[in-house]
Backbone:
């Protein structure tokens, strides 16, 4: 059995460190503090001094003198009180010296604002700080903020107070998130700018934010995940919603991220696999992040995907139904008995099958909304309710009472209710505290954000390591077979005579593969369906001299060719890929990924998530295929990859799945020289 | 050659009618005018009276008396001046009588507000009005509005004045569009509520709005297209942007539309085919409609899809590149020479390959934006520019000058420039008149809306009609072959002896199809690859007694099985469908549609729009296929359908495309008893 890492994970093999010295230090020093309020050193000094009633604040400036009414000192060593946290806002050339001085005076945490420090130097400094049992954020970062500790060492962003903990790799995007959050009435509990992650990485920050009671939701903008597996484990164990804004959906985006943060970009499909495993909500823009944060912070969750849409007027229901479908929600027909109950409280022209169109019933009597919502909540047929259209615009006292009653009834039943209204700012809706939106797509996406994520499980990697094998076709076959994936019978041959002997043993027809040109790529030529020794000889003569494989021919028939494979992502480690093989593989790209290893049951779920999955179960008069055998093969490869960090890629393609089993027809191994992600 | 209807189309075979009596009547009467301002009759009276300085306004109320200071009359006949336009706001039972009285007093146009009139009665009234050379809008409509004529007979919606002409089938959605437009600084020139389209349909209204100089953009919300082909022709000839909000993207949406407006829903894929042909921009929500209207009203257009993203800070560029890709825009690498020119005006750490990241260059000197934009515009490498991030927030006088300069330079070069800014309301951006957005997805979708649509061509249907043929496999084959699609050789047989004779003539191996169970569905059993008379006999004995077809076996080899077919949409008429056939047809749904008829070149474009299209050109070592032959077959079917309104469905599936041609392997015909859309 695999271990599902739901317990608190450790990072980098060490016990997770406390980041209290970073977020709530008893004393802080700003090195590079400036008199000039336009300079970052000036803003940092101002930000640090705002917390003077909470902690000792020291300012370090090479020239000394007074800054914002406080005396500054020439060096850290000259400060009367040794700082627990040091902010280094110095030129790149002075960064190393500042770090050393900070460690010398006993600092427990360092925030590296400095940009332009070389990559190798950064790494060395990161190690040096870690070895001193201190922590380093950055360098090339924009500081930290902690609401409760009144620590504002990122004063260029005006973070409104609130419950979001933000970890970000872009200053301007953090700024934008601050502005967008404020417009939605949201705010921040904590902020950490990741910078170049010389020591502290996203994973460890997520662990810290998970322990931070004031933080109710962890939001991240990350381009470079570093130890992505640790990040996913930390998110899975956080015990609060984690929303990730990341990039890599386009070639230009990947290129730009590489320029921006030297990100060793993971395929977005791998990131999504990690997000699914960890229960992370992935978004693509700052607006999306804030828009999913709002409903997630409400604490509500959908138990299923059945949405009932209701409103007074048909057009809005029609549009809402389409938008809901696009967001993956269902708008199912209501049962006849429920429809009849609704009809009894609605005008004769009303529609009661979902969407529910009051057809003027709300205009006649706004309490109709209350009756309909109560019937829907009582029915158990709705996982969520969406009121759409005019509601909020009647402007009567009764409407306000109804709005309050709707929200109360929904709260009691645990069924989320969201309102799309032409008048989201009306007194009725504001007083009710309803989640109310001006645009239908925002209302629906808020509900979609509340769909409960799958149980969270980020698989751990085994500690024992399978010894590496050489590359090569037969080595790959053996590796795969030893893992438990049956392969078509094959014999290595080096001469025409050996080929004939092998064919006689296997039985005609046979296939012949040249192994001459194989090197981290497909094998050379392949000739199939050789019926007799003469055809075999002819094929052999047509090949370049060198090793070949003689193989039994598989009966494809009504079988389906799949791909199962594993590859090592530089950030997230081994990943299982399953997909449709054959001639349509590339054009449809029907593949699904999961962090390896996966159990057979999870591999089967993954296979069944493919678009071609209906063909497994005998669609169009075809036989039912042995999906379990394919799932076993996929699971076996994934378990192997979890124990073999030297596998860069290992693929069985095609894996022929028939009614009776699954059989690999080709295998390919690429070894990685770099055995662990950096 | 097909005729491409770019000239002004006619509707229903008649010359397009003037709608002046509807939108700018010299006199108007409201039947059902009320003293009660809460009633629609009261609001209509108030709205009509607002235009008293422009026209004679008569109020009709069964009880007579004064309404809003004006005398009312008991009947239309009693009015001192005969009205050109009559608004009928009366109970359904009194609607017919009101229409008759309106025609009796010589009204040229009638607006039917009344709801609940039966469908048959509505149709009869529509004909009666048309026969009297008058026009009827509605019934069950919400009135009309004309900004220039100061005609407000839809006073429940507060339409801000502007350049959008709106035709809508939902009152509440019109209301919402009015509110959303006002927030974006947009407004309306005209409004017509479609209602049940007893006489006036969307097509004729689009023609009228096209002639209306004040209307710069035609926006529609339509659930039921009635004569969809006429609608598409009218939109294609409008000479101004047409934006369509419609529904049908989900089962629940279709169901709701049927309840709401009795819409005979067209498949959304058919609507999209019509939109492509007519150059209509289709949207799914009110917000999307307003958001594409704004840039379209600017008059700017993209010449291509090459977007250059620029900004001061990397994160925003990374996110923008991904969003652009999702919206179908390209963010290509800039040429080395242009990149070098950019590098010369940017800091050494800047990225110049697109996205262009100033890396602090803008903060150092805001005029950097001007230099970079000018270089990009001069280069000819950008079809559009997107400034993203902090710009707008520097707050200096220089920034305002730069913003004005950017907009001016872009205007002169004809390359649209859009700004995504954390500060879209800043003085710099507002003064510059730039299209500026707070959210990156809105900025990118504004640019995407400006991508030039394909040349507009809505094919006309031929007037001559091919005589109907019976259903049946061989009739379908003959129909298809006569149209010019080669079919595999086949012989009808009724006995085992006839089958053997046919097979001997065609040559073994053969296939055998039972035609017994075929009735508007696939033929019965099929057995392929019968190698000799014994196998044929055995297959024949296994079939139910009755007619069969003996067929030559096609050599599939490296060929590809496609589907080509035509079907008659109840609203848009004959539609050509091409797609991937075979076992993966259903799971991938790789199909493309076009209004029939299409020329072979257009059919080939359609085929090449399929996801499987890379396989046509010899991907993965396969032979290049004869796509032209498949396109000829598709075009031939489409031309046939355009001349045969009795064809409900005609499908060649599979059409085997090989390196040497295209060959139909099966054909199926379903006749329609209803020969014209209602």
Residues:
């Amino acid at each position: 059995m695999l271990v599902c890492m739901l317990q608190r994970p450790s990072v980098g093999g060490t016990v997770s460190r406390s980041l209290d010295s970073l977020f709530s230090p008893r004393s802080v020093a700003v090195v590079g503090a400036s008199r000039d309020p336009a300079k970052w050193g000036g803003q940092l000094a101002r930000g640090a001094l705002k917390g003077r009633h909470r902690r000792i604040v020291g300012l370090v400036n090479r020239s000394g003198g007074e800054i914002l009414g406080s005396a500054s000192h020439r060096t850290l060593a000259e400060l009367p009180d040794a700082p627990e946290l040091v902010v280094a806002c110095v030129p790149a050339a002075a960064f190393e010296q500042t770090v050393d001085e900070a460690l010398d005076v006993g600092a427990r945490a360092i925030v590296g604002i400095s940009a332009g420090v070389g990559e190798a130097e950064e790494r060395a400094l990161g190690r040096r700080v870690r070895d001193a049992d201190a922590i380093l954020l950055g360098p090339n970062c924009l500081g930290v903020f902690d609401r409760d500790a009144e620590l504002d060492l990122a004063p260029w962003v005006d973070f409104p107070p609130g419950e979001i903990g933000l970890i970000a790799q872009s200053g301007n995007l953090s700024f934008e998130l601050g502005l967008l959050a404020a417009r939605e009435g949201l705010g921040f509990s904590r902020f950490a700018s990741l910078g170049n992650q010389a020591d502290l990485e996203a994973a460890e920050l997520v662990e810290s934010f998970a322990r931070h009671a004031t933080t109710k939701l962890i939001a991240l903008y990350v381009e470079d995940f570093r130890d992505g597996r640790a990040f996913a484990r930390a998110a899975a164990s956080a015990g609060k919603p984690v929303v990730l804004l990341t990039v890599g959906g386009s070639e230009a985006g990947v290129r730009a991220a590489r320029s921006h943060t030297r990100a060793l970009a993971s395929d977005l499909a791998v990131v999504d696999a990690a997000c699914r495993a960890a229960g992370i909500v992935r978004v693509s823009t700052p607006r999306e992040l804030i828009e999913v944060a709002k409903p997630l912070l409400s604490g509500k969750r959908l138990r299923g995907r059945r949405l009932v849409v209701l409103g007074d007027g048909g057009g809005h229901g029609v549009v809402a139904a389409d938008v809901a479908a696009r967001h993956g929600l269902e708008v199912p027909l209501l049962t006849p008995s429920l429809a009849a109950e609704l009809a009894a409280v609605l005008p004769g022209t009303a529609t009661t099958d979902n969407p529910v169109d009051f057809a003027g019933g709300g205009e006649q009597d706004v309490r109709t909304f209350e009756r309909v919502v109560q019937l829907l909540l009582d029915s158990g047929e709705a996982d969520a309710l969406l009121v759409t259209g005019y509601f909020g615009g009647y402007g009567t006292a009764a409407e306000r009472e109804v709005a309050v009653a709707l929200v109360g009834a929904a709260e009691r039943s645990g069924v989320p209710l969201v309102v799309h209204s032409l008048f989201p700012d009306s007194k009725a809706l504001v007083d009710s505290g309803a989640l109310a939106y001006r645009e239908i797509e925002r209302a629906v996406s808020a509900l979609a954000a509340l769909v409960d994520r799958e149980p969270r499980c980020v698989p751990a990697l085994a500690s024992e390591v399978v010894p590496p094998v050489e590359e090569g076709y037969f080595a790959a076959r053996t590796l795969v077979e030893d893992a438990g994936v049956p392969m078509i019978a094959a014999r290595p041959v080096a001469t025409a005579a050996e080929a004939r002997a092998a064919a006689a043993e296997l039985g005609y027809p046979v296939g012949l593969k040249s192994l001459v040109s194989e090197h981290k790529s497909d094998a050379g030529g392949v000739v199939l369906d050789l019926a007799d020794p003469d055809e075999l000889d002819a094929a052999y003569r047509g090949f370049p001299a060198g090793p070949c494989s003689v193989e039994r021919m598989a009966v494809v028939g009504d079988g389906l060719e799949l791909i199962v494979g594993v590859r090592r992502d530089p950030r997230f480690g081994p990943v299982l890929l399953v997909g449709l093989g054959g001639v349509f593989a590339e054009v449809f790209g029907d593949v699904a990924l999961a962090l390896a290893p996966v159990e057979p049951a999870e591999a089967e779920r993954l296979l069944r998530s493919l678009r071609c999955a209906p063909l497994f179960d005998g669609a169009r008069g075809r036989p039912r295929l042995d999906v379990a055998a394919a799932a076993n093969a996929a699971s076996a490869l994934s378990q192997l990859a979890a124990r073999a960090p030297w596998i860069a890629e290992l693929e069985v393609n095609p894996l022929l799945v028939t009614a009776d089993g699954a059989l690999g027809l080709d295998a390919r191994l690429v070894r990685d020289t770099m055995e662990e992600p950096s």
Observations:
- The CA atoms of residues 233 and 458 of chain A lie 6 Å apart.
- Chain A touches chain B through 77 residues (CB under 8 Å).
- Chain A has 23 helices and 29 strands.
- The radius of gyration of chain A is 31 Å.
